[in-house]
Design goal:
324 residues; alpha/beta; eight-stranded parallel β-barrel; two-stranded antiparallel ribbon; 11 helices; globular
Length: 324
């Protein structure tokens, strides 16, 4: 056949494919989550998330040091306190788990790492909801005030970025106002803007001991809605979000693309625990090539429009030389 256009010409060799690749992924695109617990000397693998651990602050410093050696410089901290109550009071303690972790990491690494903190009450409340619960309903405005105080505690302890994941209305504005009033004008906000009520969060809830009474469908988003995700992202940007996030990633790549097309700020997606654990289970059963599946997933997220990806796969990807 005499064909003017043969797309296969540009796929003939690995170097040719590398030359014309439209999308790439590198260590700088990845943010690594950590689950911080109380005590000392704890490095305990989470049974539902192979290779991911609960770590005490002393061991967290060692864990991050090993990550930095691999090339992972951006880290997201989740605190898992032993004490929980109705209002999550441990979340706003200036000497709480996350402030302790921030100070230890800042002392060890200075500005050589980017420290992001999760701002949500679910791991701190006895009922497992992301805000205050009154008569079985999560109330918005009082919860947003508590979340702003939590973000301030993290900023004072050295967070570069605070990341509200609760999905309360107006919480980004409340956080921005309080941070600015207290002089933390350079602390950034990464908003979980389009966080869907998802079945993919199961392993994470094991990790954080945060399974709620009932469900979170009155504040997290309905998986059937796309326009609403854009509305949430646009409102967060208007309130002062410096970056916006879509969570989960794989089942919502259309949302990542739609937010990317509307947002001028960085767009982040969260490659969540269920997505991670399913890959690990398939690999363990001999049903999948881990490198091939992980790379295909991460590149799919980048191709959809994610500037940054929060993922548990970063260490394996760098140790294996899958990315640099």
């Amino acid at each position: 056949m005499n064909l003017l256009h043969r797309p296969r010409r540009l796929r003939t060799t690995p170097l040719m494919r590398e030359l014309v690749a439209e999308t790439d992924i590198a260590a700088r695109h990845l943010i690594t989550p950590h689950f911080v617990v109380e005590g000392r000397g704890h490095v305990d693998e989470i049974s539902s998330m192979p290779g991911v651990t609960h770590v005490s602050v002393d061991k967290l410093v060692e864990e991050v040091a090993a990550d930095v050696e691999l090339g992972l410089r951006s880290h997201l901290l989740f605190g898992i306190p032993e004490h929980k109550d109705d209002h999550g009071t441990a979340a706003v303690a200036k000497d709480g788990l996350v402030p302790q972790a921030l100070k230890a990491l800042r002392d060890r690494f200075g500005r050589d790492v980017v420290l992001v903190t999760d701002v949500c009450l679910c791991a701190y409340t006895s009922h497992g909801h992301c805000g205050f619960l009154e008569d079985g309903v999560v109330v918005n405005d009082a919860s947003a005030d508590q979340l702003a105080r939590m973000a301030l505690a993290h900023a004072k302890a050295g967070a570069d970025i605070v990341s509200p994941s609760d999905m309360m209305d107006g919480r980004v504005g409340a956080i921005r106002d309080l941070l600015d009033d207290e002089g933390f004008v350079n602390t950034s906000i990464l908003a979980y803007s389009a966080k869907f009520a998802s079945a993919y969060y199961g392993p994470f809830r094991d990790a954080c001991d945060s399974a709620p009474r009932g469900d979170r469908k009155t504040y997290q988003m309905d998986s059937r809605n796309g326009r609403e995700a854009l509305l949430e992202a646009l409102l967060d940007m208007e309130e002062g979000a410096d970056m916006v996030m879509v969570k989960p990633a794989l089942a919502y790549l259309d949302i990542v693309r739609r937010v990317r097309e509307q947002a001028l700020c960085p767009v982040v997606c969260y490659n969540v625990s269920g997505e991670y654990s399913m890959v690990k289970a398939a690999v363990k059963a001999g049903f999948a090539d881990e490198r091939a599946v992980v790379m295909e997933n991460l590149l799919g997220m980048r191709r959809a429009g994610a500037d940054l990806i929060i993922t548990y796969h970063g260490r394996d990807a760098l140790r294996g030389g899958w990315i640099r």
